[in-house]
Amino acid sequence: MALANTNHYTISDIYALPEGQRAELIDGQIYNMAPPSMTHQRIVTRISSIINTYIQQKHGSCEVFVAPFAVFLSDDDKNYVEPDVTVICDDNKLDERGCHGAPDWLIEVTSPSDPQRDYGIKLFKYRTAGVREYWIVNPQKKTVTVYDFEKEQYSNQYNFEDDIPVCIFSDLIINMNRLVYIGRQHD
Predict the structure, then answer these.
(1) Is residue 30 part of a domain?
(2) What is residue 2's DSSP assignment?
(3) Residue 10 and residue 28: Cα distance in Å, rounded?
(4) Residues in Cβ contact with 55 at an 8 Å cutoff, skipping those fewer than 6 apart
(5) Which of 48, 81, 141, 168 has the maximal Cβ count within 10 Å?
(6) CATH number for the domain including 56?
(7) Tally of structural domains, the chain
């Protein structure tokens, strides 16, 4: 939920928050972030491990980061997000502060307190920033919504028991129930 204030905040305000307080900044509005649940952490840890293992096995150049990891979506000082899982394939976007520009793939795991931020505000920001692929994992409903912005396929809904194809990696499939990666068979 956004702080009840009509002021427009900047990234400096995010860095001035007390130690341990996490928040995101979207269009100058600060959104506080609650600590993640154990289920949330399990999903983030396992899915990032699967992606990282896949990239290493393929000798890929992409890197996987988990929150808290700073993503500065634009050159302004009004947007700062910490996606749960961030995949970046262009190391020119990386420095010690985080990612500057659109990552290739973002995954958000919804929290019961504010799932609509992931489905609304962040969806719009990620698409307009140039993110190639965006997943919204909803542990409460056991669904994954996949947006392939690169091919302009705006929404595919999967259940946790489905094998979910990854858009940016043509031979990677992830099953949330098993949280395993399944390689596609090639003809």
Answers:
(1) no
(2) B
(3) 6
(4) 62, 63, 64
(5) 81
(6) 3.90.1570.10
(7) 1
pLDDT at 174: 95
- At residue 153, φ and ψ (nearest 5 deg) are -95, 105
The identity of residue 47, as a single letter, is I
Residue 125 belongs to some domain of the structure: yes
User: Which of 99 and 119 is assigned the larger pLDDT?
Assistant: 99
Left if phi > 0, otherwise alpha if psi is -120 to 50, otherwise beta: which for 138? Answer: beta
Boundaries of domain holding 42: 36-183
Cβ atoms within 10 Å, residue 48: 19
Q: Could you tell me if 134 and 123 are in contact, meaning their C-beta atoms sit under 8 angstroms apart?
A: yes
Residue 83 domain flag = yes
| Integer CA distances (angstroms), 77 to 27, 51, 59, 74, in order | 9, 30, 35, 8
Other C-beta atoms within 10 Å of 181: how many? Answer: 20
Sheet with 180-183, strands from edge to edge, namely 163-165, 172-175, 180-183
Model pTM score: 0.90
Q: Give the separation between CA 160 and CA 176, rounded to whole angstroms.
A: 5
Q: Would residue 155 count as lying in a domain?
A: yes
In the chain, % of residues over pLDDT 70: 92
Residues 6 or more apart whose Cβ sits within 8 Å of residue 112:
140
pLDDT in tens, 58-89: 999 999 999 999 999 988 999 999 999 999 99
